[in-house]
Amino acid sequence: MGDIVRHLMLSHHIYSKHKRRPIIEWAKELNLTGFCLPGKPGVICVEGNKTEAGEFWTRIRSMNWQKLQLVHTEEETCSQVDQLEELRKFTQFEELVFENSSQKKQDMSQFIDYLSKHNCIHIFEILFGMEAKIS
After folding, report:
1. Tens digits of per-residue pLDDT, 54-66?
2. Using 50, 70 and 90 to split pLDDT, how confident is the model at 109?
3. Pseudo-torsion of CA 90, 123, 75, 28, nearest 10°?
4. The whole model's pTM is what?
5. What's the chain's Rg over C-alpha atoms?
């Protein structure tokens, strides 16, 4: 028994390798799945055990950010230990890179497709306050 938590974080930007590397390392160390979308804005989504997700948020907040917000949290209670894995939307933690003509901006249509494939298009709507147009 336990809880699965999905934290959605929004940063003004994520460019620095000094931030991107620990984000990936900590997520893997804490057995969290989800993604980091570097660029402007920067988006981080982690999901997993409530304790480990909380530890990730504590660690990431300790870094020097221009702006970082925990914008949304989803929580579900698991009645069985193996149910935790079934409730995950993601199978691993990964850094997303969607090519665009601008090196500092991500292709949001590819981000929308990624979220749609993981059955969590609502994340786009929470982050940006608008309905995502799926291609």
Report:
1. 999 999 999 999 9
2. confident
3. 40
4. 0.89
5. 14
Give the model's confidence band at 106: pLDDT under 50 very low, under 70 low, under 90 confident, else very high.
low
Residue 20 burial (C-beta neighbours within 10 Å; 0-12, 13-18, 19+): middle
Cα gap 91→86, rounded to integer Å: 10
Q: Residue 28 pLDDT > 70, yes or no?
A: yes
Residue by residue, DSSP assigns the chain as -EEEEEEEEEES-B--HHHHHHHHHHHHHTT-EEEEE-BSSEEEEEEEEHHHHHHHHHHHHTS--S-EEEEEEEEEEESSTTHHHHH-S-SSEEE-----SSTTS--HHHHHHHHHHTT-THHHHHHHSS-----
